[in-house]
Structure prediction request, 687 residues.
Amino acid sequence: MASQLVRRLARSRLDGILSSSSPNPSFFNRSFSSESNLIRATLFPGDGIGPEIAESVKQVFRTADVPIEWEEHYVGTEIDPRTQSFLTWESLESVRRNKVGLKGPMATPIGKGHRSLNLTLRKELNLYANVRPCYSLPGYKTKYDDVNLVTIRENTEGEYSGLEHQVVRGVVESLKIITRQASLRVAEYAFFYAKAHGRERVSAIHKANIMQKTDGLFLKCCREVAEKYPEIVYEEVVIDNCCMMLVKNPALFDVLVMPNLYGDIISDLCAGLIGGLGLTPSCNIGEGGVALAEAVHGSAPDIAGKVCIKETLILYS
Amino acid sequence: MSHRSFSILKRVITHHPNSSHLLSFQRSVTYMPRPGDGAPRPVTLIPGDGIGPLVTGAVEQVMEAMHAPVHFEKYEVHGNMKQVPQEVLDSIRKNKVCLKGGLRTPVGGGVSSLNVQLRKELDLYASLVNCFNLPGLPTRHENVDIVVIRENTEGEYSGLEHEVVPGVVESLKVITKFCSERIAKYAFEYAYLNSRKKVTAVHKANIMKLADGLFLESCREVATKYPGIKFNEIIVDNCCMQLVSKPEQFDVMVTPNLYGNLVANTAAGIAGGTGVMPGGNVGADYAVFEQGASAGNVGNTNLVEQKRANPIALLLSSAMMLRHLQFPSFADRLETAIKFVIAEGKYRTKDLGGDSTTQQVVDAVIAALD
Prediction:
């Protein structure tokens, strides 16, 4: 029974992701498209519980007759000089070619001289938007039953630029950078997503009353894009109000678009509302229509060997 | 009437899981004041914008009815002024204590927030919000009793922004050892003086290694000086997730500026809303009490016109103020009356699910004072 529900949802979710990744208008209808040609997708099983979950995904998709052909790539054990990390150039090329990918949790081995794997993927594929749909699952009871929102978070700049320095002993500065280009890009994607999925409202989350120039620039870009979509209601919410409204009444929100740090916190808050990171799908959108769905949680090396509900999240991705 | 309210209160208290707060009114050892402590203390009052004047008016009425030994010196400050007037600052420096409504900051208007300015001028480096379940008010989460202590002067709200080239804006987040240390010291001292068992530091040091790393280091150092209080650390996104699923695990939380804003508002939301949470800002010399979270939110024009703002937050903050001024029995009486009104449920404003006006709630509180 659970597998039937999962199969039905997997079908609709896969269409949702495919339609959001490619701009081809024929994918906009949500009925199951019977394509004769196979969709090729790259699969990174990952570490820890990753391979088990990947196996379950392949099984379910096979049973549901989804026309997908997986290209599996494993994280190498030595550094590839072309990418400066454990991910090989072939893996990245495969994602660029296929445009669709699925990533399991990857643990970054602690060492020197290489970049974190997630960071490599993000920088090389230019993944600028992180999309997390949060729906209350009918079978899993939490204190919140009416959650139905999508958080879209800018993924490349903002507070996570990683530019910090010590000015004098005991004083540290960290730079938060907001650019017009990145803000426009993510705002465009947010409105495009809202339109494609029949969403009615887009809310921009900010703290522009305090950080007037930085979040002010982000808001200006959102307003510009909002004018091009007059049928979608656009509003701006200060982040502290947003947090409070989310925990009191999550039904008030539809699509949320925000810069990097607020996005991190709010998307995890929404994940908590529906039951945790184990149940949340997530997808990173890159330039040129690349979509990389991922597992939000970590590799959990201590529970490898036990099958848990976390596999449902990849299926929903 | 007071006999009936006493028995209702007793029933409310015995059902309340954390009844140690309310038992203080059954004081067995008395508070012995010094001669002259009963002289009325002057307190600066800033009504503010939006619903500010409405709720500060409510506090004035209740203080009158209690004959509390405070008298208010009112000053008009509005959010669109360039800076806080000098006379207001002088008055606060003289009185040492201030009660204020919210000051609305125009969004993107190029005027820096007056709330932030006031905190920086008076060096009110700790902002405290107490989020707890009020008996009788239904919420999704039970057993919430969290105090969020937030660094108030630096961090992301330094206000240092500039446009590098057109289309690229930079904002500086400054963390200093001096400020991190003093906020950590305040948090542990607060926990020690209020018999709290655990302090949790909220950070994002896996990404902002130097900045939040410095904050964490300072907290760890101070923690070693308080071996009786447990200390742990949590990343801010995990923290928000835990707050909405298992809030009972948190006790006192110490955070830098921005995360504190978010965590305080989230905690206020899960415990009943920002309309009922008390809070204040305190520094080495001065204390300013205001509505707990979201001080810049002064409500919309609808609320002001219909006079339906919720005065509970500011009333509870004024009870905090009375305790700070060392008038414990007045603070107890006010708190008990407020809790009785909320538990009874007849007079609640819209954000708590009722439809009373501010004045009705105030009258109910005055009637419940014994």
